[in-house]
Automatic annotation (TrEMBL):
Top-level taxonomic group: Bacteria
UniProt protein name: Phage tail protein
Any Pfam family: Phage_tail_fib
Domain named Phage tail fibre protein N-terminal: residues: 1-100
Organism: Grimontia kaedaensis
Length: 167
């Protein structure tokens, strides 16, 4: 799933961003929080309303002067509707929050890993002032088990056909 999010920047996050830029540094997004809360977020928010858990960023890159592309993988056994997302800085400050007041962004099944890709638009921040700290995960390897299962099923189907045909 890939969605362009225009989140609400928080006062706490903007202050942390200001502090970092005053020191000549970039603020670093390190985690994404997922939760079940559905509301219209405001700038005074310091946490998600109903956070289920936080995830490290699997991979991320700058997609423009005010846009970041982030990927997170939820491989837990939690089951919930993702209706709120928080973007956390290295110091734990909530930089920005997005909530789907109606509907949901995704459903996390306890038996299936959820891969979320976000194009995060941060137009209310100085250009190139935020960087992404990721785990460096190679997301291409996530598809290997599924491809192996498909190949096995295909080979078994062909084998059954040949056994039936030759009998």
């Amino acid at each position: 799933m890939s969605t362009v999010l225009v989140p609400t920047l928080t006062e706490t996050g903007l202050q942390a961003l200001f502090n970092a830029t005053q020191d000549g540094l970039d603020a670093k997004i390190t985690q994404v929080g997922l939760g079940e809360g559905a509301y219209a977020p405001d700038q005074t928010r310091t946490a998600l309303e109903s956070e289920v858990h936080r995830l490290p960023i699997a991979s991320g890159k700058r997609a423009g002067t005010h846009q970041l592309h982030l990927n997170v993988i939820d491989d837990t056994d939690h089951a919930f509707w993702v209706r709120e997302v928080g973007f956390y800085l290295e110091d734990g400050s909530l930089l920005a929050v997005y909530s789907a007041s109606e509907g949901a962004l995704a459903y996390k099944s306890p038996t299936i890993d959820l891969l979320l890709a976000f194009d995060l638009s941060l137009n209310g921040t100085p250009a190139d002032s935020i960087t992404v700290v990721d785990t460096g995960a190679d997301l291409n390897i996530l598809f290997a088990p599924e491809l192996a299962r498909l190949a096995t099923a295909s080979i078994n189907t062909m084998r059954r056909y040949l056994v039936h045909r030759l009998a």
